[in-house]
Amino acid sequence: MERVIDTSIGINPEGHELPYYEELVLNDEEKKKLERNIERGEFIGGSYFAETVGSGAAGKMNEDSYAVFPMGKGRTLLAVFDGASSQKKIEGLERLEMSGAFYVSHLTSMIFRKSEEFRKLCQPDDITAEDVLKTINSWLPVKFDRVPGVDYSDPCSIPGMAAALVLIDVPNEKMTVAQVADTFIALQKQNGEIEVASNNTNE
């Protein structure tokens, strides 16, 4: 996957967590990559193609992000995250020239995999996409609690995110899906038929 930050960012050499404003520090060249990210790859059990394209609005970062995470022997998580900005401006992100939508989607796709919560998810022999989604949902508030301007007593200050996750588990011969809001998951069968495996929960 094309990365817009160095994989070491998020934890400093002493093993302590970096301040929120250093977790997604981007230079000008890295910001250009956000306009269009394309990746094709293989994993145990299949292959994937992923692409995100920005809106083209001047100075607006791509609010969509994707992730391909190995999650233990023979397991792979494929995910798309679609950020949604809060109704109120967030002081701590404005100074970084980032929207809440961009921050929440890229924080999840780039930093979550380095967390202790993610490491623990990879250990059991049998997990589901729903397990991953619930863990992300618990992990994000802890991260946002450090961002000036985000106040969990004021819902209008909290960014949100739609998400679609597919966990392919080869050893257990199963695939599970989890989805939030208006993202959707479509499956193409060997006979060419396409089946939608999720619902638009915004309707």
Automatic annotation (TrEMBL):
Source species, domain of life: Bacteria
Residues in PPM-type phosphatase domain copies: 58-202
InterPro entries per the UniProt record, alphabetical: PPM-type-like_dom_sf, PPM-type_phosphatase-like_dom
Name of protein: PPM-type phosphatase domain-containing protein
Annotated source species: Candidatus Woesebacteria bacterium GW2011_GWE1_41_24
